[in-house]
Amino acid sequence: MGQFVDLTAKDGTTIPAYVAEPTGKPKGAIVVVPEIFGVNSHIRSVADGFAADGYLAVSPSTFHRAKPNVELGYSDDDMKAGFALKTAVEALPAPGVMQDIQAAVAYAAKAGKVAIVGYCWGGLLTWRAASDVSGLAAAIPYYGGGMTTPEESARSPKVPVLAHFGNNDHWIPMDSIESFKKAHPEVEVHVYESGHGFNCDQRGSYNADAAKLARERTMAFLAKHVG
């Protein structure tokens, strides 16, 4: 359904992004921020799904500044490779990858209001974008690893946020989720009977019931804030 296009970040760097176009006039747009596995087949299918529901979906290659053309699976070796690339990107001088997300938002804005949705590391970047990126109407992080730490929780989102977590997520302890909820009563937080990565049907942690309910809530949130 989609194709790759080139985005240009503020510093002039060219970043590839997967773009899925809806049929007919879009309701708005969604920037889809990938996990630590790159813009792989799962993330492309997520973008295609949002396009099928009427939104222009744009998924920037968040690893491009560290390594181009990254597309990993979910094996232990893939996990190690993804963590290494994430570490490299996180170590970039500010604004680092956030300017690539900003470029994706600017591109997506041609379709109207723009939301951002991210998974795993992409969830953390989505939470950061809610406070640091301009042009957004809503943010939806899924199990954003690190976003419930005191440092990240100290951020002040500028847009409505819907956050999805699993109660058996070994990367995001429940006590940190509870602390996050207390710090951010304005954020709509939902916790599912699931582990990390419950939305990804290519992972062993996939939970169909949690993924379905989270998507229903996500689509309702998008309808309210994007169109």
Main traits of this protein?
single chain, about 230 residues, alpha/beta, Rossmann fold, 6-stranded mixed beta sheet, two-stranded parallel ribbon, 7 helices
Kindly describe this structure.
- The chain is α/β, with parallel strands linked by helices and 227 residues long.
- The chain has helices spanning 41-52, 76-90, 98-108, 121-132, 150-153, 174-183, 208-225, and strands at 2-8, 14-20, 28-33, 55-60, 114-119, 138-142, 162-166, 188-192.
- It has a 6-stranded mixed β-sheet, with helices on both faces.
- The longest helix is centred in the C-terminal third of the chain and has 18 residues, at 208-225.
- It starts with a strand and ends with a helix.
Compact overview of the structure:
The protein is an alpha/beta fold and 227 residues long. It has 7 helices and 8 strands.
Helix content percent band: 25-40%
Q: What is the total number of structural domains?
A: 1
What gyration radius follows from the Cα positions, in whole Å?
16 Å
- For the secondary structure, the number of strands is 8
Largest beta sheet: strand ordering: 1-2-4-3-5-6
The share of residues in extended strands comes to 15-25%
State the shape. globular
> Overall mean pLDDT score?
97
H/E element sequence: EEEHEHHEHEHEHEH
Regions with pLDDT < 50 over 5+ consecutive residues?
A: none
Find the structural class using helix and strand composition.
alpha/beta
Distance N terminus to C terminus?
Answer: 22 Å
The name CATH uses for the topology is Rossmann fold
DSSP helical segment count? 7
CATH architecture: 3-Layer(aba) Sandwich
The first-level CATH class name: Alpha Beta
CATH superfamily: Alpha/Beta hydrolase fold, catalytic domain
Query: Major beta sheet, specifics?
Result: 6 strands, mixed
